[in-house]
């Protein structure tokens, strides 16, 4: 197979969400596995709504996921190219001017439905004489421009959905240019895909209906038609559609919530496929699992509880070398011994700070039985301490008090850490140290 060239083309009008990340990851990982290249192309033709802050945020989000584009393009810098393509299509008789208002088109649509006809544009504008056009423009009307479809069946072999076909006679000629001269999505997208040599277009299934039109435009431009793949869409756990406008599951919010990028990537890629959802530690391993033919046709639910499970698994298995810099950024100086002691009690890495505060103090000891704790303090082993101290101490306390099981362990944990759960005290005690432990057993903050 020729090395693929793929693209991800977000509109910088809001923060991207996990559904957008699914598309970006499927493209980037496919290119990664096949030795191809990934283009990040900002669909910023809407100059009023596009914002630099969103361009920056999208760049950060993709970088957080480990996606590094081979090139970055901006459609707002390519208007001259689109103008040239539009002129080519006009001269070929494939782009024609229409003067109907939105109200007139809606009225015409209702009449067609009432007569039992499909609400397809009737190409009335093609019947206008030059005089008619001049009269309409003299009235202040400005044309929008439609692409003249060839009324034939367009077929393509979709990477995910298999053989697809659309009878273009059932479609209205699509508007490519608005009355104010601005471009809709289709013409810039096809122009750029052709100009940039995009070989595979992998996108959400909400674009399936656009494909037949785009195939015809590729052909009209004399360009190679890319391979298409339309994946299922992600929803929230409750089945709601994701929205940039509503901020559903934005990548920035997941990152700020302490989620691991590979947990997010693993769930975004594997959910809704035949592959078992599990935590994959690297992008290369995740790329090897992509099989477009195994992606379901049904929408897939992105469950935040499942994400937490995957996140915890990655944190529990994370080597200290991977966690070290992030722990230091949280002002945690406990080193590898601390990390190995606490990591299996974390769902998110930043939660390690809570246990560093327990180790470092001060904490308020919880002492429910002062006599028991006083006896425990009396038999506290001398320094130096290592991971055998907890066993030595509890055996001595048991011999002194006769307590065992929960009645032995829980009062000691509450007094030393202030909480009734957490990492093994065999690992924590050497980090807390004898002096601090003794202070806490006396009921003092330490």
UniProtKB/TrEMBL annotation:
<dbReference type="InterPro" id="IPR000924">
    <property type="entry name" value="Glu/Gln-tRNA-synth"/>
</dbReference>
<feature type="binding site">
    <location>
        <position position="244"/>
    </location>
    <ligand>
        <name>ATP</name>
    </ligand>
</feature>
<comment type="function">
    <text>Catalyzes the attachment of glutamate to tRNA(Glu) in a two-step reaction: glutamate is first activated by ATP to form Glu-AMP and then transferred to the acceptor end of tRNA(Glu).</text>
</comment>
<comment type="subunit">
    <text>Monomer.</text>
</comment>
<dbReference type="InterPro" id="IPR020751">
    <property type="entry name" value="aa-tRNA-synth_I_codon-bd_sub2"/>
</dbReference>
<keyword id="KW-0547">Nucleotide-binding</keyword>
<dbReference type="InterPro" id="IPR014729">
    <property type="entry name" value="Rossmann-like_a/b/a_fold"/>
</dbReference>
<dbReference type="InterPro" id="IPR049940">
    <property type="entry name" value="GluQ/Sye"/>
</dbReference>
<keyword id="KW-0648">Protein biosynthesis</keyword>
<comment type="similarity">
    <text>Belongs to the class-I aminoacyl-tRNA synthetase family. Glutamate--tRNA ligase type 1 subfamily.</text>
</comment>
<keyword id="KW-0030">Aminoacyl-tRNA synthetase</keyword>
<dbReference type="InterPro" id="IPR008925">
    <property type="entry name" value="aa_tRNA-synth_I_cd-bd_sf"/>
</dbReference>
<dbReference type="InterPro" id="IPR020058">
    <property type="entry name" value="Glu/Gln-tRNA-synth_Ib_cat-dom"/>
</dbReference>
<keyword id="KW-0436">Ligase</keyword>
<dbReference type="Pfam" id="PF19269">
    <property type="entry name" value="Anticodon_2"/>
</dbReference>
<feature type="domain" description="Aminoacyl-tRNA synthetase class I anticodon-binding">
    <location>
        <begin position="370"/>
        <end position="442"/>
    </location>
</feature>
<keyword id="KW-0963">Cytoplasm</keyword>
<feature type="short sequence motif" description="'HIGH' region">
    <location>
        <begin position="10"/>
        <end position="20"/>
    </location>
</feature>
<dbReference type="InterPro" id="IPR004527">
    <property type="entry name" value="Glu-tRNA-ligase_bac/mito"/>
</dbReference>
<protein>
    <recommendedName>
        <fullName>Glutamate--tRNA ligase</fullName>
        <ecNumber>6.1.1.17</ecNumber>
    </recommendedName>
</protein>
<dbReference type="InterPro" id="IPR001412">
    <property type="entry name" value="aa-tRNA-synth_I_CS"/>
</dbReference>
<dbReference type="Pfam" id="PF00749">
    <property type="entry name" value="tRNA-synt_1c"/>
</dbReference>
<dbReference type="GO" id="GO:0004818">
    <property type="term" value="F:glutamate-tRNA ligase activity"/>
</dbReference>
<keyword id="KW-0067">ATP-binding</keyword>
<feature type="short sequence motif" description="'KMSKS' region">
    <location>
        <begin position="241"/>
        <end position="245"/>
    </location>
</feature>
<dbReference type="InterPro" id="IPR045462">
    <property type="entry name" value="aa-tRNA-synth_I_cd-bd"/>
</dbReference>
<feature type="domain" description="Glutamyl/glutaminyl-tRNA synthetase class Ib catalytic">
    <location>
        <begin position="6"/>
        <end position="308"/>
    </location>
</feature>
